[in-house]
From TrEMBL:
Name under which the protein is recorded: MerR family transcriptional regulator
Lineage: Bacteria, Bacillati, Actinomycetota, Actinomycetes, Kitasatosporales
Keywords carried by this UniProt record: DNA-binding
Ranges for domain HTH merR-type: 1-68
Pfam families given in the database record: MerR_1
InterPro entries in the record: DNA-bd_dom_put_sf, MerR-type_HTH_dom, MerR_fam
Top-level taxon: Bacteria
Length: 120
DNA sequence: ATTCTCACA
DNA sequence: TGTGAGCA
């Protein structure tokens, strides 16, 4: 499929799709016309890219991890052995981020509890 | 009608 | 990351 269908199927803009390619996250082939050609697997990749990006992983890391995730779920392929250590660091980063967010949440709770009307 | 590259109030 | 220009 070309970029137009990718936009419809992933909800991601053309701009971002091309940006992901620049970052090495997607490697669509080209038609003689220069048009990008994406595969069904690319649609799944975009979903993973978005999730990993939302988790705060740098595009460089995502580019390394993507080809190591198999269709069924989150199985690591052999070529990923050297990435385990890096993945552990990212995991810790997320753990620390959650801790900081909870601290912020606590501060907000204090302010909210001190005010008049309140919700959630 | 679509996609491409490049550039920037 | 959006937007628009100028092509193919």
């Amino acid at each position: 499929m070309r970029i137009g269908e990718m936009v419809r199927r992933t909800g991601v803009s053309e701009r971002l799709l091309r940006y992901y390619e620049e970052q090495g996250l997607l490697t669509p082939t080209r038609l003689p016309s220069g048009y990008r050609v994406y595969t069904d697997a690319d649609v799944d990749s975009v979903r993973r890219i978005r999730t990993l990006l939302a988790a705060g992983l740098p595009t460089a890391t995502i580019a390394q991890v993507l080809p190591c995730i198999r269709d069924d779920g989150a199985t690591l392929a052999p070529v990923c052995s050297d990435l385990v250590a890096q993945l552990r660091r990212e995991r810790k980063r997320i753990t620390d981020a959650i801790k900081d967010l909870q601290t912020s949440q606590g501060m907000l709770d204090t302010v909210i509890a001190a005010g008049p009307a309140d919700t959630d």
